C-alpha cells in the first residue's frame, strides 16, 4: 500500500510539473495568449512602450480607458500624446509620469479617471497590471510597504491580520512572476486562440497598434449609441481609499518638482446616467471630495464640465463614441486656450 501511494504521488508530481512547465513556456513565448485577453495585452503593452520612449511631446494625457476614448490628442494640439492605460488608476498614472519624465520634458499633465477608479474600484489591477508586468520589482515592493502601513491589499479588502496580508502579497508576487498555477484555468482558451484564431488576432493587433500610433494613444470606441446606465449607487457615499490617493500625491510631488501644470478631468457621463446621479448622496460626496482635494493640492486644477453629454455621443455606458470624442476634445482645446 505504501509503495502504491509513493508511486501515485510521484506520478502526480511529474504530471503536474510537466503541465506547469508547458504553461510557463507558453506564457514566456506567447504572453498575449496566456496571460489574459489578447486585445488587452496588445493595447496595454503598446502604451507601456510609449511611456518609456524618448519623445517630442511635452504635454501628456494619462488615465483609464475613458482617458483613451475621451481625448484625441491630435485635435487638441501638435504637442500632445495620450498615454492612458485601460483599467488603470493613480498607481499606473504615477509610474507613467515617473518613467516618461525620465526621458522627456513635460509642460502639462492632464489626468482623466472615472469616479469609480479614483475611488480605487478597478478590477483590472489584478487582471492586467500585475500579469502584464507593468510595475518593476522596486515599484511593487514600494506598494507592499504602503499596504502594510494601511493594512489592506491594494484593490482588496482591509485586514487586521499582518500574516494574511503577507500571504496575499506573496500570492500576487507569484502571479507577477507568472507562476503557472494562476494561469492554468485559461490555458486551453489561450491554446485554442493560438491554434485557430492567430491570424485574426494578429490582424487585430496590427490594426489596434496602428490606430494607437497614428492617433497618439487615442482609442475609438465606435459609433454606437448607448443610453444604458453606468450602475452608480445614488445612496452610497463616495469614499476613495488611501493607497490610490497616496499615488495621486506622488504624482503631484513629481509635477511640483518638475514644474508641470496638472489638470484632473472628470470625464462626462452619458445623459441617462447623469440624471440618475444628479442630486444624489453620491454626487454630493463627490463634490465635497473634489473641493477638499483642490484646496489641499494648490497646484491641481479640477475640471468637471461638461458633466454629461447626450446619449448619442456614447458607445457604451462609460465611453464616448467617435462623435463624443470630437466634441469633448474640441471643447477641451477651447478651454486650454
Written account of the structure:
- The chain is an alpha/beta fold and 337 residues long.
- It has one domain.
- Helices cover 57% and strands 8% of the residues.
- The protein has 16 helices and seven strands.
- It has helices at 2-29, 31-34, 38-51, 65-70, 73-76, 90-103, 115-118, 124-129, 137-150, 162-176, 187-196, 198-214, 242-258, 271-277, 281-296, 322-336; strands at 59-63, 80-82, 108-112, 261-265, 269-270, 300-303, 308-309.
- The model has no long low-confidence stretch (mean pLDDT 92).
Describe the SSE topology.
Layout: H1 2-29, H2 31-34, H3 38-51, E1 59-63, H4 65-70, H5 73-76, E2 80-82, H6 90-103, E3 108-112, H7 115-118, H8 124-129, H9 137-150, H10 162-176, H11 187-196, H12 198-214, H13 242-258, E4 261-265, E5 269-270, H14 271-277, H15 281-296, E6 300-303, E7 308-309, H16 322-336
Parallel strand pairs: 1-2, 1-3, 3-4, 4-6, 5-7
**Structural class, from secondary structure content?**
alpha/beta
Q: Indicate the radius of gyration in whole angstroms.
A: 22 Å
In terms of DSSP E residues, the strand content is 5-15%
Low-pLDDT segments:
none
Main pleated-sheet profile? 5 strands, parallel
Amino acid at each position: 500500500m505504501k509503495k502504491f501511494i509513493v508511486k501515485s504521488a510521484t506520478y502526480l508530481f511529474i504530471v503536474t510539473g510537466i503541465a506547469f512547465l508547458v504553461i510557463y513556456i507558453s506564457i514566456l513565448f506567447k504572453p498575449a495568449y496566456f496571460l489574459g485577453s489578447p486585445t488587452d495585452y496588445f493595447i496595454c503593452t503598446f502604451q507601456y512602450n510609449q511611456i518609456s520612449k524618448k519623445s517630442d511631446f511635452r504635454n501628456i494625457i494619462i488615465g483609464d480607458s475613458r482617458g483613451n476614448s475621451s481625448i484625441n490628442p491630435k485635435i487638441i494640439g501638435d504637442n500632445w500624446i495620450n498615454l492612458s492605460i485601460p483599467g488603470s488608476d493613480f498607481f499606473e498614472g504615477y509610474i507613467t509620469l515617473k518613467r516618461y519624465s525620465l526621458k522627456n520634458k513635460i509642460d502639462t499633465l492632464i489626468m482623466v479617471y472615472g469616479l469609480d477608479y479614483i475611488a480605487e474600484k478597478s478590477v483590472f489591477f489584478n487582471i492586467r497590471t500585475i500579469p502584464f508586468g507593468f510595475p518593476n520589482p522596486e515599484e511593487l515592493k514600494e506598494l507592499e510597504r504602503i499596504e502594510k502601513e494601511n493594512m489592506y491589499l491594494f484593490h482588496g479588502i482591509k485586514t487586521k491580520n499582518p500574516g494574511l496580508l503577507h500571504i496575499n502579497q506573496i500570492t500576487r508576487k507569484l502571479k507577477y512572476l507568472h507562476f503557472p498555477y494562476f494561469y492554468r484555468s485559461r490555458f486551453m482558451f489561450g491554446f485554442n486562440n493560438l491554434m485557430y484564431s492567430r491570424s485574426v488576432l494578429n490582424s487585430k493587433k496590427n490594426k489596434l497598434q496602428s490606430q494607437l500610433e497614428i492617433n497618439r494613444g487615442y482609442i475609438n470606441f465606435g459609433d454606437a449609441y448607448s443610453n444604458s446606465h453606468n450602475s452608480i449607487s445614488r445612496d452610497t457615499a463616495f469614499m476613495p481609499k488611501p493607497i490610490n490617493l497616496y499615488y495621486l500625491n506622488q504624482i503631484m510631488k513629481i509635477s511640483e518638482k518638475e514644474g508641470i501644470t496638472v489638470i484632473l478631468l472628470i470625464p462626462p457621463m452619458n445623459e441617462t446616467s447623469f440624471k440618475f446621479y444628479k442630486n444624489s448622496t453620491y454626487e454630493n460626496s463627490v463634490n465635497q471630495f473634489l473641493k477638499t482635494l483642490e484646496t489641499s493640492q494648490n497646484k491641481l486644477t479640477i475640471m468637471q464640465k461638461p458633466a454629461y453629454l447626450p446619449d448619442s455621443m456614447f458607445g457604451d455606458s462609460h465611453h464616448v463614441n467617435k462623435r463624443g470624442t470630437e466634441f469633448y476634445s474640441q471643447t477641451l482645446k477651447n478651454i486650454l486656450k
